[in-house]
Amino acid sequence: MSRPEHIAPPEIFYNEDEAKKYTQNSRIMEIQEQMSERAIELLLLPEGAPSLVLDIGCGSGISGSILEENGHYWVGMDISSAMLDVAVEREVEGDLLLTDMGQGCPFRAGAFDGAISISALQWLCNADKSHHRPVQRLYKFFSTLFACLSRSARAVLQFYPENGAQMELVTSQAMKAGFFGGVVVDYPNSTKAKKFYLVLMTGGSVALPKGLGTEGASDGVDYARRDRAKNLRKPLKSVRTWIQEKKERRRRQMKKVRPDSKYTGRKRCGRF
């Protein structure tokens, strides 16, 4: 059976007929609700106080309704106008935005206390149009998501990676954008119940929670490697060395450059 993202772009695949399934098919709704509950659980929102959550790929608003039931406010974004029409018909409480997640999250910095996404992230791994570059679209999405979250917030994105390479692509771009975290796998030994959750943290590296259906240690895959990467960086050059090398490059390019002197690269005093 072909994966949905291999059939057509999301704005075309999720047409009016497909959108109706999300309100008429009880099995689909049950699965979506279960994954939404699990995503909210992994989000670790403060208890006893409402939070503002971004729902990415909100579709017909099923996950948003679960957020409402848990006492939270939400804003949903989706690329399918048909799915958002169904959400409006269902009279969901969240605000809805028609947009492509591959073009980024268009919200002010630190606006949200958390973010969830159900079955949407894998669509960014496809090049549905000639100008689409999955790596660039993933980085654009993760970097703008990082920006619009508060510095103690988490993002939990349930997705269906096609293979290990695709999982590595997704997680590497998330870490490049500044996130810590990794993948939590629920029921890893079950064909039907197995689910992947990308758990991202903005406030620093924390041990990943244990996946459901596992015994002992967590079945999650930790991709938080930013601290180790810092040790691998090249030592910074002095300002004087950097200026001299730049001037040499410009001289080789036959460009006009001021002559070197004992003042080249010298730090100015406080008066300036």
UniProtKB/TrEMBL annotation:
One of its GO terms (biological process) is rRNA (guanine-N7)-methylation. The keyword Nucleus applies. Residues 247-272 are annotated as: Disordered. It is found in: Cytoplasm; Nucleus. It catalyses: a guanosine in 18S rRNA + S-adenosyl-L-methionine = an N(7)-methylguanosine in 18S rRNA + S-adenosyl-L-homocysteine. One of its GO terms (cellular component) is nucleolus. One of its GO terms (molecular function) is rRNA (guanine) methyltransferase activity. InterPro entries: Bud23-like, Bud23_C, Methyltransf_11, SAM-dependent_MTases_sf. Residues 200-268 form the 18S rRNA (guanine(1575)-N(7))-methyltransferase Bud23 C-terminal domain. Keywords: Cytoplasm, Methyltransferase, Nucleus, S-adenosyl-L-methionine, Transferase. CDD domains: AdoMet_MTases. Residues 54-127 form the Methyltransferase type domain. Belongs to the class I-like SAM-binding methyltransferase superfamily. BUD23/WBSCR22 family. S-adenosyl-L-methionine-dependent methyltransferase that specifically methylates the N(7) position of a guanine in 18S rRNA. Requires the methyltransferase adapter protein TRM112 for full rRNA methyltransferase activity. Involved in the pre-rRNA processing steps leading to small-subunit rRNA production independently of its RNA-modifying catalytic activity. Important for biogenesis end export of the 40S ribosomal subunit independent on its methyltransferase activity. Locus-specific steroid receptor coactivator. Heterodimer with TRMT112; this heterodimerization is necessary for the metabolic stability and activity of the catalytic subunit BUD23. Interacts with GRIP1. This is 18S rRNA (guanine-N(7))-methyltransferase. It comes from Dendroctonus ponderosae (Mountain pine beetle).
